[in-house]
Amino acid sequence: MPIKIPNNLPARVALEREGVVVMSESEAVRQDIRPLRIAMLNLMPQKETTETQWARLIGSTPLQIEFTLVTTASYKPTNVSRKHMKNFYRPWDDVAQEKFDAFIITGAPIEKLPFEDVHYWREMEAILDWTQTHVHQSLDLCWGAQAALYHFHGVPKHPLPRKMFGVFSHHPRVTGSPLLRGFDDVFPVPVSRHTETRHEDVKTIPGLTILADSPQAGLCLIEDAERRHLYMFNHLEYDADSLGAEYRRDLDQGLKIDLPENYFRNDDASGKPLNLWRSHAHIFVANWINEIYQHTAFDISKIGGAAPSPTLGQVHAAR
Is this prediction's pTM over 0.70? Predict the structure, then answer.
């Protein structure tokens, strides 16, 4: 089944060229089924790239998906045109009364900042609390995962001595998890982080399950069943050239940056890297959407309900 996105969204051209079926509003209405409603809070600077990467993955499953792009109301992005944001994005306070089967929170290029110093941190805390009552399942990525773990559980992020940058081997850690169905015993994942979340900080918290990690790159995927959140610290959605583009960007800005590890063949930055993680990206997202489809409410108004318990953010605010 296809994905429903705005007709003029730049991602549409790329998706159709790749064979992903994209549908219009009128075509969607003719199908007598309830589409899964998936929204994405896109905090990445290259918004069009991120839109395409995630629309590609969620549009490749057998279900009809209605994809909504969301932005913060308290902070206006500067790396994309106002026209693009106005035409294709809705501020979070505009969707706050709606229910969604799934909500994705992307990473953001602010991971070196303390959480409380982020311009939109208060809104971010409100959004995370809102997911407990208006969203069936959430997927938090990179900085978004760190932010959610900090907000819900007080888990800190730690600076790394140098950027964890490259494609690293990862291992499933839970046998029988439906989210890892079809995964190989070892699978590659692109990693691009200046900070890390540590095993010892997570293992002390009941209810958090480490699903995948790497001997070199550390934690990759954590399940938080009570909060209905998945925390993914790395980037299965990346294109083949994403790490290369980051490397060239940092060089152009005069930043000290090492070659991404295990990425360029023979460490030759002039060569074209291979995408070795694409199949696992599709498997993971297909598994995630299948789990949502199996357990979400048919009547979308019944999604959510009361929050499980006060979050750390709510407790701090009360003080």
Answer: yes
